[in-house]
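task queued by scheduler; priority normal; single chain, no ligands, no partner chains; default sampling; output format set to C-alpha cells
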Amino acid sequence: MRAAFYQFNPSFGKKEENVKKVLSAVKDIKVELLVLPEFFATGYQFVSADEVAELSEPVSGGYTTEFLLDLSRKKGSYIVAGLAEKDGSIFYNSAVLIGPEGFIGVYRKTHLYSEENLYFTPGDTGFQVWETSIGRIGIMICFDWFFPEAMRSLALLGAEVVAHPANLVMPSCPDAMPLRCLENRVYAVTANRIGIEERKQGHPLTFIGQSEVVTPRGKILIRAPRDEEVLMVTEIDPATARDKALNTFNDVLKDRRPEHYGSLHDERKM
C-alpha cells in the first residue's frame, strides 16, 4: 500500500489556515494511509490553560475530526492525526484514526513531554491496535518513542504499522526509530513538523523535521529534510510485519522470557 506523511509548519491557533495547507498538500495524491503531525491544526506551544481550553475540541463532532472525516471520504484514505482533545473539563494530547468508513478510534498520549504536563492529563486509553482493510494500525504520539514499552506493547497487540504523529524537538528520535522497528518487526510512519515556536519568551522550541517511514527490518524508506515542508509517499507491505523470525531458531516475540524480566512497574525506592 501507499503510505504518506505531511511535514509542515503549522501556525499557532489558526486552525482554518492549517487545514487548508493540508488540503493543498494532498490534493493530487492517492494513498491508503496518511499521517499528520501532533497538534497539526493548532500548533504546539500552549502558554496558558485558557489557550488549551479555547483550542481543544471534543473528538466527536469537533472541527478537526469533522475535517478529517470529510478528507478521508473524499480521498479514500485512512488518516492518523494529532489534536488537542477536550473531554468535559479534562484535556488530552490525542490522535485519531479515521477511515473512509468513518471514525475508528482515539489514542490519548501516554507519556507527556515537558510543559505538556502543565496543561494535559496523561492518557487513559492505553495502547491500542485497530484492524482495518489496509492492515493492523497502532498509534503512539511523539515522546512515546522514548519508552521501548510503547512500541513493544503495540507489537504484542499485533500492530503491523505504527502511526507516529510528532512535534519532535529532541534530536535522537529519527535515528532511534529504525531500532524500535527492528526489535519489534513493525513499520513506523513518523510525521513530525518543522519551524520554531517561541510563544514563551526565552523558551524557543525548534522542531527537527526528519519525518520518516521505517520498515520492520529497520530500513529507512524515506526521510524528510530538517527544515522543509514536504509530503512524501512510499510503498509498504504491512503483511511483512507479521513475520517475526530472525532466523530458523529465533523469533523476536516468541523468544521473549517475561518470567525473567521482573516487574515492569517502577519499584525504585526513592
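post-processing summary
- Residues 194 and 207 are 5 Å apart (CA to CA).
- The chain has a mean pLDDT of 96.
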